Amino acid sequence: MNDQTSDRQNKPAQKPVPQLADYPHRVAEIIRFGDLDPQGHVNQAIFLTYFESGRVAMFRNPDLSIGVPGVTFVMVRMEVDYMKELRWPGNIEVGTGIAEFGRTSFKAAQVIFHDGVCAAAGRATLVCMDLKTRKATPLPDAAVERLSKWKLQGA
Fold it and tell me: Which residue range forms the structural domain that includes residue 47?
């Protein structure tokens, strides 16, 4: 086997391209001039702000109301795959869905679309924290029930 054949066999499988239709909650955002870096495209850190806007809009939706007395949800991890640069001016759409539940946490899957093309995909891990002890606590059944309505489609 030559080196080229060996390299092809060791490449990881490509992730499928996300589809906006799979994300049950969507919010529109504008690309601001202040979002740009010196290279003229949206700075990679701003993508996290766009994702935050999508999560907050979903969690604050009156139909979701994941607020549970005595606990809060804190982000402990954010993963981002950058796929396409964004430029000003423009509009984007942020899609959000719940990907999975753990014992004390859940993962929100998110995408940023511009002109029908996925510019980034991310996953946020949020942990349920007891407000008194400031430690992780099991997800309340009521929160899981409400969040389940926003499950990622096709997953």
Answer: 18-148
